[in-house]
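Request: Show me your protein:
***
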Amino acid sequence: MAFKNASRSLRKKASIDVLLYSERPEYFCAHDLIDRKGAEIRSISLVSGEIELLSLQGRFDLALVCTAIGHEQKAEFIIRARKLAPLLLAWTWDNHHHLYENHCGISLADIVLPAHHYCKSLLKTPHAVLGKTFPLCCSQWSRKMGTALLDESLRFRSDALYGGYVSWRIGDRDEFLSALKDQLPGNAITQMDIASRNRYFEHSAEDKFRDWASFKVSLALPLLNDLSFRVFDALFCGQIPLVPTDCYDLNDVISPELQSTLPIIRFDEYSIDAVRTAWRQALHQFDKLGSEGARKRHEFVCKHHHISVRLRQIVQYALALANSEPKLSLSIDDSGIGLLHV
């Protein structure tokens, strides 16, 4: 199999050089990508465009392409054509929607790593191995910067309900956000159209952190039942997030017991009253737990759900596959046909 032949190049390697590709580099803090608690990663090179890929001179042990409904298949073709890395992994950040585009984005991958587990089976394909789920994480801030600014943010925080959203034309989220914004007194919910989304990323990392960290509670509404970055970003900034129970993967990523102690507040209904009740509960918990609670939430993400941690976990997984005889199964059902790592 192509995947087995490619993965053999990693056998018996203690540490490797990683090519990390994303068409959205603004999602990353590029100077905090390596978790020094592990020795598996020697270097990570973040590349964000086809011109950069074409100008690369070095070679890498592994290429990890973060797919976000762009044109990542073109980047994968360049990686293949230039032999930049023998093993190519696709980490699908948006596999909860746009199925056709997702399959285009994984068309040249050896291994597919879904970010959203509840719908991962839709990514089955006979040309690549559908591997382990690696959920999204906090990636826009460095741990050092966040830790340094956290205490400053705890001097005063607003009780207003925070949440900034792009108005994607998918599902009913935008309509519900508009209702909350209009009918829920004391909220700080913002909506922006797709063309204006870069206004957020134009701010410095410090200013973005200070904005998030000036509030106690934020709303984390899924687009389509997904566990998004914003849950981890909220915790990293010391906030208490409100998350509906139809965010399907959260219980598997953060146990219900841990959710209750951090806390993360869940609500069942998409209604003004349900959000208001959850918001009040979260404010009470924030004030009760105080600075110690905010630091606990921040440290939890630093240790378990920062981009540096997630990249180390992915590399560990790839090395484990290379140094073993992984069990694969062929799955054929109504959603497609493909190879699964079991």
The two ends are 16 Å apart (CA to CA). The mean pLDDT is 94. Residues 143-304 form a domain with the Rossmann fold fold (CATH 3.40.50).
